[in-house]
Design brief:
about 240 residues, 5-stranded parallel β-sheet, alpha/beta
Length: about 240
Amino acid sequence: MYKQTKTGEYMRIDIITVLPELIEPFTRESILGRAQKKGLAEIHVHNLRDYTADKHKRVDDYPFGGAAGMLIQCQPLDACISALKAERKYDEIIFTAPDGETFNQPMANELSLKENIIIICGHYKGIDYRIREHLITREVSIGDYVLTGGELAAAVMADSIVRVIPGVIGDVESALSDSFQDNLLEPPVYTRPAQYHPVSNPEETWAVPDILLSGHEAKIREWEYEQAVARTKRLRPDLLE
């Protein structure tokens, strides 16, 4: 399931936003920052206002028909996307939209195999629909709710996509055993001490299941699978359908 991008090179994600200061710090830290330092990924944030023809750096306008709210105009998005496409070929041009297909782990796995993708952060009441009709290749939502802008959605997607690129996380097995891989939730996990006495009641003991201390790897894997199935049935039965 997990391998390098099509050419075996690093992955590049270009994020287009009207609020670069909101997302740039996130791309420099933690997993995303580590991936870039290792040369496994590049993340570039583009300020849409740098591409507008308006002298006041305006990128939005009122929608035709008298609907409420403001829309991002065609011109700055078209100019930004065109400038990026002039430099390289993109596998996907993604728009973060509440009415898009729901982002999930299989999609993150799939996108991690791409070489170059663009993520456009929606804002205001969205973008002129002509951009969606002619330039967008995929529309993605991170959940059935509306955010002020698509910056948080873009950050979520970038983190989820990049973390499964081989070499980004030191322990690849950790990524492979995460929740939603194979449509199962993660089994219970524990760490030391094996016997813990809670502050609220020192006489009580919270113990780690004996099977995890047995050293019998085959039985441990069997227990983990059984627990993963049981938790999925209880918490997310829809995943098993």
